[in-house]
Design a protein that fits this description.
There is one protein chain. The chain is an alpha+beta fold. Helix content is 44%, strand content 18%. It has a 5-stranded mixed sheet with strand order 5-7-8-10-9. Strands 1-2-3 form a 3-stranded antiparallel sheet, with no helix packed on it. Strands 4-6 form a two-stranded antiparallel sheet. Helix 4 packs antiparallel against helix 5 and helix 8 packs antiparallel against helix 9.
């Protein structure tokens, strides 16, 4: 917002024109060391000051303004100014009271403008928060609807089997196990929702001893129906019962990594989870699968929120939040997370997600 009066802003140029009053022509063509010395002497002294050429400068220390090139009645040096004013400038005079009125009106308008900007900025920020929460909620509801379909499907088969006179107890147990797995997935989705919106709440709890191999086993069982539907096999290589200290939210991590592998694997594909230990210490967990090609220059981007590989955009449904959540969980638990890709041909590649433990 431009000031109504000419204003001196820096040492290297003449005063800037005001929105109501322009800088006098003389001040524009005669800006020199004498002017600079004048401004330097008065810059921290509140009030009106006469410059060597007869014009008035006004210092407002509260707002750090220096209004200048003013012809003020009763204060400017008329005799000195007479030869320095053009004909069209000689009648442009103001009283000190009028100048104060203009400055007060300017400061009020400026404050109102800043207030309006702050309100707009705050509104935009809150709108973004609401939109982000809505997006996360929509994603979560979408996942929960899918799980609900699984529950209905398993409940239907369970009920149909129970209606038989000679029911198959093993089939009933299998359906019951699948229903239990689906309810576990509901819990995982809701925990992921809470964590996405309030990740800092994780640190309110304590880190506990955690067997990650068992967490991966549980995730594999819970995702078995999804894996079967996709005709994808989930395998484990090695086993590790070493414990790591981690926050409870780490329960989500195996689900995301295995589910991600299943989603992007082709029919009859395999998601392989490898557990590496040394001297009774878990060193790394590697989850890999064959899937759509991912170029090296895309690797760092797919860990960012909402980012996905070019080869899957519009072809495989996804939100681009899975690996972002994995990275966030790993950061909270001091686990090094990295991704890599080995290109097999023009369309496919091997995707590798690695967790390294300190």
């Amino acid at each position: 917002m431009d000031a109504p009066l000419p204003e001196y802003l820096d040492n290297n140029s003449h005063p800037k024109d005001g929105s109501l009053l322009p800088t006098h022509h003389f001040c524009k063509i005669t800006f020199n060391d004498k002017c600079k010395t004048h401004y330097s002497k008065i810059k921290s002294i509140e009030g009106l000051h006469v410059c060597p050429y007869g014009f008035v400068s006004l210092i407002n220390t509260h707002e750090n303004n220096c209004f200048t090139s003013l012809n003020v009645q009763g204060i400017s040096k008329k005799k000195i100014l007479r030869k320095k004013l053009r004909k069209n400038e000689s009648n442009i005079t103001m009283t000190s009271n009028k100048i104060q009125e203009l400055i007060k009106a300017y400061e009020k308008q400026k404050a109102e403008q800043i207030f309006a900007k702050n309100i707009t900025r705050d509104f935009d920020r809150k709108t973004n928060v609401v939109e982000n929460k809505k997006e996360v909620l929509d994603d979560t509801l979408h996942e929960l609807r899918n799980i609900n379909k699984q529950l209905k499907k398993q409940a239907f088969f369970l009920n149909k089997e129970l209606e038989k006179e000679k029911y198959n107890i093993e089939l009933i147990r299998e359906n019951a196990k699948n229903i239990r797995a689906a309810t576990e997935l509901v819990t995982v989705r809701l925990n992921a929702y809470d964590f996405t919106l309030n990740p800092e709440l994780v640190e309110f709890g304590d880190k506990i001893k955690t067997n990650l191999y068992r967490k991966f086993e549980k995730a594999k069982k819970c995702l078995s129906v999804y894996a079967d539907d996709q005709s994808v096999n989930v395998t484990f290589l090695g086993n590790s019962h070493e414990l790591v200290f981690a926050y409870e939210i780490i329960d989500i991590l195996p689900y995301i990594l295995i589910e991600n592998g299943i989603k992007y694997s082709p029919i009859n594909g395999t998601v392989q989870c490898t557990f590496n230990s040394c001297n009774q210490k878990l060193e790394s967990i590697i989850v890999k699968n064959i899937g759509p090609k991912l170029d090296q220059d895309e690797l760092s981007g797919i860990i960012e929120k909402g980012k996905r590989g070019k080869s899957v955009e519009g072809k495989i449904k996804g939100t681009g939040k899975g690996l972002y959540l994995v990275k966030l969980i790993c950061d909270y638990n001091d686990i090094e997370f990295s991704v890599d890709s080995k290109i097999i041909d023009n369309k496919t590649g091997e995707f590798i997600a690695t967790l390294k433990f300190k």
